[in-house]
Each structure stands twice: as structure tokens, then as C-alpha cells.
Amino acid sequence: MRLRQRRRALGVTQAGLASRVGISASYLNLIEHGKREVGGSLLRRLAEALGTEVGALTGREEVVLVEELAEFVTDPVFGGLALEPADAQEIVARQPDWARAMIRLRRHYSAAARLAETLSQRLAHDATLVQASHELLTRLTTVRSFAEILREHEDVEPERRTRFIQQIAEEGARLGDVAKSVFERLSDFDESLRPSTPAEEVDDFLVGHAHHFPALEHAAEPFGERLRTTGSDYEGMLIERLVGRHGVRIGTIDDAAPWRPTFDPVARELRLPIGLAAESRRFELARLVFALEHGDVISAFAEDPRLTTAAARERAREVLSNYGAGALLLPYEHFRSAAEAGRYDIERLCALFDASTEQVCHRLVTLRRPGAEGVPFAFLRVDPAGNISKRFGLPGLRLPRFGGVCPLWAVYRSFQSPGTILAQRVRLPDGREFLLVARAVLKPPRSFGAVSQTFSIMIACDAMDASSTVYGDAAAATPTLESGINCHLCPREHCAQRAFPQVLPGS
Fold it and tell me: Domain locations in the chain?
């Protein structure tokens, strides 16, 4: 609809636009009426021909609305209704506020259901609550017994009466303490149980900006250029900046338990966990430099109306500080040029910029500067249990907000060979094809007996852009995988990895 509206506003015919971008007028007609998906290089050509940005055609914020609305079909409460995921796109295009209202209602319903289930489980199995309930009953019985003695025996001598009253008061106080602890225990829930979590709000905020923040890029450029052109001791330069300009002391955390750095703004001390990898140390130093020097820019973004709670705004500030660190250590133009020259070779970029796989992959997602865009990538980070901790989708490639993705995808297969990059071409049920590139990353423990961290990092692009990457060649040499997004949405009935029946109409 946006494409059709923009074309008509410019007075361009379908035939004229189709000729300029190298497709047939009939194919363009199918795109304009939502019968064909569009992305990759064709989407960029259409945007250029219409004199607009890719984001203006795709609807950056609407992408996540379509993804989440399409997940409705996976909820058993909608069983028996003829819901088609493909209809989500038309609903969002025609009535975006109604789509937001339905999504908000579903989030509240899901949170309430999880809350009720958790309360039930806690009341039945939480040892602390069971013990507290027993103590409540015991103390209530004691208070009741003393009260009945005083009521039924008016001739109790004054000394014993005073002692009974004192015991009632003491037991009542203890009863109050136990009741308070029970209520605190019952209300002590993880943020994931609340109707709108900080993580969800920050996800929506990032999608609304297409994971690209020009103001942060601009703020990082001067010092980022100095880091790139003045020697190779980035860590030394960052420490010198923190100590000399900001009076920050650098210390270490010897305890194996805290795995995250800590910064005390009052004592002006940054403490880094002992044994932290060199690229992670540099990133944490750059993160603090950016936060101290450009906190006003970060705070301005954190006032976005999509961030409705203090926790969401704080999480956004953390994410934006991370973005700034990436912009400092991997300056936009240097990084984009190196990525294009090396055909988006992740290992080459890691070596050139002394960065980790996750840092490089996350930076690739942010290359959305108008007129200097990189290949559009989706991003996914999962742990061995399938929990998704970071996600950013593409038009046509919906990454679920909850649950996992197809178990056949490279993002899971990479756990079988940590450190090795796997390339895979997949074809979804609607015919769209994507290139998936994944690597499992193992962060070794910092002491004997400590638990290591393992994640799989995946980026994905439209198959039309695969030839721009080194991984497209490797994936082309193997058969394309017939896949779905996940089992709930996949109509491929005979898949050996199917975990759940599909819930689409006719299933």
C-alpha cells in the first residue's frame, strides 16, 4: 500500500516504475496488492526510483506489529478461528492502531495467565510458602488459645492475665512479620510476568528506529576516528581517556560470581571481572566512555513515549550505551567499507577490528544509513535451551517474540560444532528464501567450577542479497532446506523434527 501510494503521489505509472527497476508491470502489480513479498536489492531499487528511504516503504515499526499479530494463531485460545498469518500484514497496513490494541490485549492476557499459573505453582510447591503457611496457622492458633482463655476465665489472676496479653502481643507481631514475608514472596515476580515488560518495550523502540541512530553515530565519530588512526592500543587509549578526562579508576573483580562489570559513579571506579576477554574489556571501556561523554544524547532517546516505565528507560539507556561502544570501536564508514570489500566475512571483520562475533554481527544489523546502507540483516541470539535473548527480524522473516524457531536452522545446528560458522539457505512455506549464517560462541569459565556461557549468534538476509556475501557461495553448493519459522506456523506435515502440530486452519 505504501508503494502504491508513493508511486501515485509522484504521478508514476506502474509500467514506468517497473521498467526503471527491471521487473514486469504485472509483477509490480502483485507487489502493490500484497500478493508478493519484496525485499533486498529490489526493495532498495524501488526506494531509489521513488526518491524515498527503504524504511519509508517497509514501515519499520509496523514490521514488529505484523510479526506479533501473526503469532496469534499459535495461541490455543484462538482455536477454531480461521486466522491466517498472511492477513496480519493487511490488518496492520489498514488499521495499525487496532493491531496495536489487539497485541496489547493479548500481552495482558498472556501475562495474567502466566501470573495465575505461577501463583498456583508457588502455593502448591514453594517450600518457603509452605513453611510460612504452617507458621501462620501455628501462630494464629496460639493467639486464639490465649484469647479464649482470657474470654472464658474472667477470674484469671492479674499477673497471668498480663503475661497472656503480652504473649498475644508478641505472637501478633510475629504473625504480622510472617504475613508480610508471605505477601512479599507472592509479589516477587520476574519482569517477564508483567503485562508489558521493559524488554518488550525496548524491542519495539529499537525496531521503530530500525536499529540505527544517526545522532549516536555522529557523536561517536570524532573519538572513533582517533582510535582507528592512532596506533592499535585501543584499550590503552580508552583507559587514558577515562582516567585523564573523567577521573575514573580501573579495578578488577576477583570473585568468580559477578560476570558483569560494575561502575560506581560516586567513587568513579570501573571494576572489570578478572579474565574478561580482550575484546570484551575494550567494549566495556568504550561503553563507559560513550555513556559519560554523550549521556545527554542517550537520555534524550530514552524519553521515547514507547518506553513507559523507569525500568524500560534504564534498559534503553544500557542498550544505547552499547550501541555507542560499537560505533566507537567499529566506525560506520570504515566498518561498512571493510564489510563490503570482504563480502561480509564475519571472521575477517573480527580480525580487522579486534572484535567478537557478536559485536561484528550486531554492528552489521545497524548499517542502515540512508545512501550508505549495508545488506539488511536479521539478528538472533539463542542459548542451548532455545531461549531467545536478542532478536531483530526482516520483512518476510518473522522471528517470534516468544519460544524458539525451527530446530533445523543453523542457529541450533551450530551448537554441534562451536566456533565454526555455518551457512544455510532456507525456503519458507510462502516461497521466500533466506540465507542464514550462524556460529556458536563459548565463553569459558573464569575459574574452576564456574559455569561457562554458550550462545549461538545468527544473522540472516534475503536470498537475493546472498551473492553479496561469502556465505552465499557455500550455501548455494548445498540443497536448500524446506523450513518454517517454527512448528506452530509450519505446514510441512512430514518434518522429522516436528515438535508440535501446526495450528493453521486445516491442520
Answer: 2-100, 126-191, 196-372, 375-507
**39 CB-side CA count, 13 A:** 23
Cell numbers at 147, concatenated: 484469647
H or E element that contains 435: strand 433-443
CATH class of 196-372: mainly alpha
> Cα–Cα distance between 52 and 395 in angstroms, integer?
17
Go through the chain and tell me how many residues it has.
Answer: 507
Q: pLDDT tens for residues 34-57? A: 777 777 678 888 988 988 877 677
The answer to whether 421 and 492 are in contact (CB under 8 A) is no
What number does CATH give the domain 375-507? 3.30.450
Domain 2-100: assigned CATH number: 1.10.260.40
> What does the alpha-carbon distance between residue 338 and residue 17 come to, in Å, rounded to a whole number?
33
Cell numbers standing for residue 489: 506456523
- Non-local (6+) Cβ contacts of 77 within 8 A are 109
Q: Considering the entire predicted model, what is its pTM?
A: 0.68
DSSP secondary structure code for residue 427 in this structure:
E
The 10s digit of each residue's pLDDT in 359-390 is: 999 999 999 888 888 999 999 999 998 888 88
| Phi and psi, residue 454, nearest 5° | -130, 130
